[in-house]
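Hey Z.,

So I finally got round to the zinc ion thing we talked about over coffee. Here's the setup:
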Amino acid sequence: MRLVDSHCHLQADRFDDDRDEVIARARAAGVERLLVAGWDEPSSRAAIELATRHDWLDAAVGIHPHDAAKADPAAWQGIVRLARDRRVVAIGETGLDYDRMFSPVPAQLDNLRRPLELGLEVARPVILHCRSAAGSTAAHDALVEELDRAGIRPPPDGRESEAPGSAAPPAVMHSFSGSAAFARDVLAHGLAISVSGLAFRAGEEATFGEVAPLVPEDRLLVETDAPYLSPPGAPRRRNESEWVRLTAERLAAARAQDPDALGGELVNAYDRTFRSAS
Ligand SMILES: [Zn+2]
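And the result:
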């Protein structure tokens, strides 16, 4: 099965002892594309360095909602500069996290609006994290409002017109978690959906079963979010890119699809999302 890891943090210090081995293991396991996302300015710079050392890796630069309150204007200016690097294929990760709420809401909203603007300006997709508190959909609702506010809107007739060759997705819902209604909403805005092991954890899997068949093949991605979110069945708690296979296989089953056919689609969707801009 061909594989991609559309979102991970291999620059994190938890890989300091074996980073190159982790990358080599991913490659040996069939991972052909791997996107390293930043969460603040230094980690965004480190993502670019990693993608420069390993030419099959890509980088994304941004400030995570957890770090929104810590980021000063200089940090954001740093991200804007880094976004011009040729190794950078996306802006992020950014988004909203009203569950852990490590940054107050106004700082998170500010930290989301800037990259949405920057993504449109540099024609790169924006990688979005979204978590509402238990029993609430506040972050999910706010995120959709912010997409509208940024001018990322559904087509006027409300249909999901996705003609072949149409523009790459303006944003990616990373490590998707949410209802089928939310999935329909972001898909109608033209977004891609990236699936991590989280989708198959107890408590998520039933809802995700409704979401899995909704995503068009050219807007479906798969990821680890390593070192976080080790998928069910993985041998260790520290997640690694090679275990994206476990999630991709479960995704194929959830979509009643042949794994090899899905693998080819995942690579194509990755290229369309992240590598179609020059
Ligand atoms: Zn992440």
